[in-house]
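Any chance you'd type out a single protein's sequence alongside its tokenized fold?
>
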Amino acid sequence: MFYEKSGAENGTPIVFAHGWGRDHTDFVPTAELIGQAAPTVLLDLPGFGKSPRPEVDWTTQDYAIAVRDFLKTELGITRFIWVGHSFGGRIGLRLGAMADSPVEHLHIVGGAGIKLPRPLIKQIKGKWRGWQFNKQKASATSEDALIALEEQFGSADYVSSRTLGLRDIFIRTVEEDQTPMLPKITCPTTLLYGGKDTETPPAMGKALHQAIPNSTYVECPEFDHISILSRGRHQLTTHILETLKRGQV
């Protein structure tokens, strides 16, 4: 698993995990702002960036176990702060819910992992689009035609999963609902969401906040799913540094 390590020599390490289709560079600006306050480890999750994909179709639990074991065996890290964006947030929830969890504080940035209630009209529209896609897919005569259909009907992450060679993992992980295990997360948890995020909207963060016992919900009204990492890096950094300052880790 590729990683970049920087920051202070001592202290509780802060481990950063990126979202679907992205890599460790998303968190470089935040890690630079943290500076010498703590050691930082920026991961390329298996299948992304410079890390090879898993040999089989992993679940987020498989990712969590692999990350935990890698940090322990390769870097000697057994306790850490987790900062996960989107897909990295899903993995963080799994780590936080483990028996004898290695996580001392969770920072979930635009994270997913649960199913939000959908209005009936959206359910009907979704089923109609799915029916149209499957019907036209059956008539596709070339790979280019199939890709064009996926771009028309699928989400950006669904489309990218083909290019990444991770379609099997995407389908398996996106269908997960981690609601039953959320009450098992006992470490302090900060949920940071962009008010303009349409991929993992504020409603997702609020639902997680209701389900995770020791959690805090923070909404940044001017940011979307990606800009919360770039223009919003100062807010994220502030919350991480406050965690260190309060001695909650």
